[in-house]
UniProtKB/TrEMBL annotation, chains A, B, C, D:
<protein>
    <submittedName>
        <fullName>Inositol-3-phosphate synthase</fullName>
    </submittedName>
</protein>
<dbReference type="GO" id="GO:0006021">
    <property type="term" value="P:inositol biosynthetic process"/>
</dbReference>
<comment type="similarity">
    <text>Belongs to the myo-inositol 1-phosphate synthase family.</text>
</comment>
<dbReference type="InterPro" id="IPR036291">
    <property type="entry name" value="NAD(P)-bd_dom_sf"/>
</dbReference>
<dbReference type="InterPro" id="IPR002587">
    <property type="entry name" value="Myo-inos-1-P_Synthase"/>
</dbReference>
<dbReference type="Pfam" id="PF07994">
    <property type="entry name" value="NAD_binding_5"/>
</dbReference>
<dbReference type="InterPro" id="IPR013021">
    <property type="entry name" value="Myo-inos-1-P_Synthase_GAPDH"/>
</dbReference>
<feature type="domain" description="Myo-inositol-1-phosphate synthase GAPDH-like">
    <location>
        <begin position="249"/>
        <end position="361"/>
    </location>
</feature>
<dbReference type="GO" id="GO:0008654">
    <property type="term" value="P:phospholipid biosynthetic process"/>
</dbReference>
<dbReference type="GO" id="GO:0004512">
    <property type="term" value="F:inositol-3-phosphate synthase activity"/>
</dbReference>
<dbReference type="Pfam" id="PF01658">
    <property type="entry name" value="Inos-1-P_synth"/>
</dbReference>
Length: 440, 440, 440, 440
């Protein structure tokens, strides 16, 4: 099928969605999609389902839905599966997550009960505050990865899906930096066999996915596919990867506000962010080593948006703090409070306070859905390796090693939409628009 | 001077800044510029002074200052003058405005005292809560306009400036809609002679400016140059005009937040905005007829950003309220409180509360400065009539009648920067960036 | 029964609760009590149900529940009835009010359906934004009052209750001041017969209640029993009355915060209060004449707490504003935002912002319950006329004409508890406590 | 002088104020008092200077100023001295503290420069993030205490003051619990000679004060006089002591709000408090061992106010967190954000958010002033040992060991005022007030 610049294979057959971690985000995604299929809910927050894209000039008034513009899989074609450290089926897990009310879950009880997680690859050394009984055993990490690949193959055989995508929805692992064992595929595969401590469970999932020709999206701040070995493997095998850390809640708000302040060249003296949340994620982040992973992901955002190296006077010396507190009364209803100290004309100080009463999984589920559909589109379009055009969805967007990441949500959206226009051979939008007026 | 696509006359000689209304914004602008000239303050919040512009690819690392990229007038070349309904000189007026502390104003006392406002064209029928003694008299509105033109000419003779710009910094007038008398220049000029009630003082200033070859920027929500007669006059005489209503405070925040929510396709059920402020502006807006003018300007913002016609399900039915309260304890320190009711995945409700402790004139002064410098650039570049590329600075951006305005701050910024790139013959930035990666 | 200083008749038999207005507050009260009776809910927010009272010295550790200390009616003894302008039964009305979820209401559907409102006395001249079909007709206001008295008698006959209480839970009427017709019983009764416009429907209910020996509690800011004619009638007939305007939400918070600031002698320069709510109450208050009634009730609070006449320097010149906005997205979930501008040592300014995400009827229902039980206690204790000791529950507490009202929530609570101690012959608590230490 | 129940010696001569720690609070106190003396500032926030006290019945309208009712020292009689780890004089220290603007400090420069701190007793083991050069040396802690006593004596000789008070305004020490060495005077004095590690610098100051007949008020959360040895010493020697931890900022707000929620029997599920501040105090509290001391003081507040043992259902299971973050952009302008999760009728959840933009030292200075004046009054009235009636000023009020402390700000105020009434032989106020009405 020739469309625009690129040949995109059609979205024929079913699309498997393989979820490592069947917690709040995964079950909210699955239950939501099943409710939507039945007309009992709306997939609000999803760009693939609601977004439009302007084509041509403003006067042409041509703004189709994105899903009518590029050939995406339909929600009816999604088939879910996954792994978890608890054996609860999807219904039990969703009840336990406590995001969607029990009465509403009952409407898709059958569909959810049909999803039984496979045994997870898990090691408490990497997620200290969790433990569970539903865990794979094996001689070494390589063998565990092989088991995951067998799971994937069996899933495909069982369900008859034609393609699959794996969005990581598991927990935040302890902080980890690139090690020699991550640098080449050879070293990595040898490391798995030797149970090298720098190889984490999430890496085994990613390795298994790529080896199985399954695009991988990294929803947590873990290192996972941010290592040369797996990035090269993905390029070589023609598999798209992207990440990392779903951008929701406070960081989403930060990547909305910061570009606004920067646009107007208002100076920043401090940004204090605190969060309260009471779900499993909050509990995991109570562990300092997991928190450090998250914190790195959250802190870098401002640096890239504000470009202190270009605006030393305005952004060269600000205090940025991010705190996360496990506060059980809130359950999944995360709340962020930001205090932003800015300065303007003649250095006069001003303050902005943002209080976001959000819902963690409600914001994350449509992100996961969009990534599933766009990663499948990328795969069918012949794109492979890092998908920078999906930066829009991530707190720490992956990009080529010689580039800096774009954190500005609005640049990210422009990038995403212009990529879609490119795929379909449409003209890039620059918002210049001088041709509407007398030319100078 | 051939530069890029367009011939831009050099910024030689002094640039006159003619200010109708010498209140808080004007005096904060003037005092600020004088302090900056002496190295006693920084023009924070000004894109022309601090902004950078990326040229070429990310890897080229070429991001000059905007003021090094396009030939703008320097701050040392600005010469201020203006009109006011009080005869206080600039120093007295600045003290009265209470924005900058007295100790700091003393540092530029001499410069400020040198600025004595001319008698204003004023009529209390259009601004009911103000009155002052320093007012022109004349047979009819046309004669008043002639007096303004004489003032402008005399200013140029006295100061020797080579060019001038007039940014309206006066009060909000009563609500007014386009009338027959506004439709042609002929009708308008006849109307002035007949003292037609639909011709407001601000229109006389704009008429005088355009007739005197002085670009006009409308900083208030008044109708002023939003009428065919003056728009055609500006086009015919090659004079740039732009407007309207400086985008500061709560509306600035709204045009930052709303595009962020829209980007993520989060639904909106309500947006409640309240403001407290205690300066002259707050007092004027206490009058319902002036408030209505302001309210129109503030309410339309969301409609254009959210495009309910394209996203009926998400944005087709929200409650939007804007309230402004005159609350003297605050003085110029305006404070906004926004409560935003959004909904996400499966329609779950969430809330965002934004509390902005801002300073009205501190945010407006750099906007006025940028408009002075960019309008002068446009003039020297041969651009005339409506300058849509300056939408970035306005609550209700002017655009060609067959277009819808762009309210999204980030689209506005892209438009502004791509216009500058166009003027200098640089490539448009699309943020596509697929060429950094393996091509699909 | 001799108890302490006062003879209190025992709480034998059933207690009728007569509700003028079966809207959100009434149905939340009834449904709540029925749920509590079944063990399906808790009457949180009720001092009569949860409050304790310290007796004797701290070292005695004697703090019984209030309901164990004074002889109150039990919840099982309450029998509900009422009037409304709609004929919906209690179940339908509760569903319509939208405070308690439908699933929960189903658990007491039978009990609620059994309550059918009688036709109301209503006149749209006094509540402009409401109208309904279920309305009494009569020759004149006196005749309507007679019909109410007949309703009361019939209710008692039908249900066999031994005593009754009438807490007004109807709407806010238009603003009204004391008129000659209100000054004596004779004038008042003549006025009813002549349909005097200064006699409002709520006064007819109050008159009917007092004539029927039923204590009356005024939950709205209406004038109602704040008139000499009805106050004397209540005294003469030995019937307790109290009011006015249930203290919930923002005003509750204000009477908590203001005494705290006053305690520390922190000065006040401004208090800006805004409210958003979306229920019937919000709609009614959208009418300026009803809002004025409410505003008077809300504004006076600070004057009495801060005593500007005693503290001219700190409280002699502050700006106090109260705004209420009908904002449908919120339904019954009222939200208040307060900005408080204070000043301290050497006049340095500080700010407090309070954002209260409350629920109107959820806060009002236990207030209504407590008043029912305490008014019945007062009646059985032989107390009559104005019950100042119940000021704790009201925005505009009634008191003897030669006194100033106490608005400080903590003085009000002390008064309430010391009254209970007095009724039972217990020692007054002064918190002096010097006897625990060496005496000076 | 016979007055009321108690003989109070007159406030003749000068009163010395001995300040251990000449940081932000001390210098704000001193500069403020000097400004007030000159009529250049107002001592807002001070109950002794602005508070009134009602005497007799409401109808008597007798509400004198507290300072006219009890014989307090006047501000003109205060003479300041102190110790610090830096040798800066009062003017330099005040400039460094950055609370009061330099221009204003200049107005009392001479008075402040005249105050040179004595060398401090200091040991970094107890305050880890501070160090300074202006420190006493000695053989052991006993010898250091002797040096302090000599300092006190020399101060009195030099200034001719007739009485002195010592309010501790130094830093928060590491967390410490009562040890055997604290239990008797004998053990304590032996411990000083042996340099026992459980004896902290603040204890040496307190010991020196009591031995010198100087009342001691503990403004920090340190253990200091909360030990039997010093409490007995104070009683034996007839010296008043009180503490601990000046109640300002967020905890002040908490002791205002919590009694309000408790009054209405609203349940509590969580209270999350976070603070940002950027002064020396914030820096010291960045050390976990100092923070623990502060946290203990802050956390206990709710327990005592809410009495979970009496109200298990409403207050038996809430999450209470207090966080303090050193955030330099704020300087002395502390900011608190509280999120309070409450529940009402039928357990419906509601939220209160309080954002307090306060100023640490501006709130603390009048507290220190009041304590100086009231402790001197207590001393002259023959009161000794723990002064529970001053609980009003403290986060962790001291009380007799067999009592529980009162944390409710309003009970504390009642206690304070009834104590003053007692001292002057006035009737206790109970707010019963039934005598205004017909008696039941």
């Amino acid at each position: 099928m020739e469309q625009g610049n690129v040949t995109i294979a059609p979205a024929q057959g079913k699309l498997g969605v393989l979820l490592p971690g069947m917690g709040a985000v995964s079950t909210t995604l699955i239950a939501g999609v099943e409710l939507v299929k039945k007309g009992l809910g709306r997939p609000v927050g999803s760009l693939t389902q609601y977004g439009t894209i302007r084509l041509g000039k403003r006067t042409e008034n041509n703004q189709p839905l994105i899903k009518d513009f590029v050939p995406l899989a339909g929600l009816d074609d999604l088939v879910f599966g996954g792994w978890d450290i608890f054996g609860d089926n999807g219904y039990e897990a969703a009840l336990h997550a406590g995001v969607i009310e029990p009465e509403r879950l009952k409407l898709v009880q059958e569909e959810l009960e049909a999803i039984t997680p496979l045994k997870a690859v898990f090691d408490q050394n990497y997620v200290r505050r969790l433990s569970g009984p539903h865990i794979k055993t094996g001689q070494n990490k390589y063998e565990l990865a092989m088991q995951l690949m067998e799971d994937i193959e069996a899933f495909q055989d069982r369900t008859g899906v034609t393609r699959m995508v794996m969005p990581w929805c598991g927990s935040t692992e302890v902080f980890m930096e690139v090690d020699d064992v991550h640098k080449t595929l050879q070293a990595f595969e040898a490391g798995m066999k030797e149970n090298h401590p720098a190889i984490t469970p999430s890496m085994l999932y990613a390795y298994a996915a790529i080896m199985s020709n399954v695009p991988f999206a990294n929803g947590a701040p873990n290192l996972t596919v941010d290592i040369p070995a797996l990035q090269e493997l993905a390029s070589d095998r023609g598999v798209p990867i992207c990440g990392k850390d779903f951008k929701t809640g406070q960081t989403l708000m930060k990547t909305i506000m910061a570009p606004g302040l920067k646009a107007r060249m208002l100076g920043l003296s401090g940004w204090f962010s605190t969060n309260i949340l009471g779900n499993r994620d909050g509990d995991v982040l109570h562990d300092p080593s997991s928190f450090r992973t998250k914190e790195q992901s959250k802190l870098s955002v401002l640096e890239y948006i504000l470009q202190p190296e270009l605006n030393e006077e305005l952004y060269g010396d600000y205090e940025h703090q991010v705190h996360i507190h496990y506060y059980p009364p809130r359950g999944d209803n995360k709340e962020g409070w930001d205090n932003i100290d800015i300065f303007g004309w003649l250095d006069y100080p001003m303050q902005i306070k943002v209080n976001f009463l959000c819902r963690d999984s409600i914001l994350a589920a449509p992100v996961a859905l969009d990534l599933v559909l766009f990663m499948d589109l990328a795969h069918r379009s012949g794109m492979s390796g890092i998908q920078e055009w999906l930066s829009f969805y991530f707190k720490s967007p992956m990009c080529a090693p010689f580039l800096y990441p774009e954190h500005d949500l609005f640049i990210q959206l422009t990038k995403l939409k212009n990529t879609l226009r490119y795929l379909q051979g449409e003209e890039q939008i620059t918002h210049l628009g001088l041709d509407y007026y007398q030319q100078p």
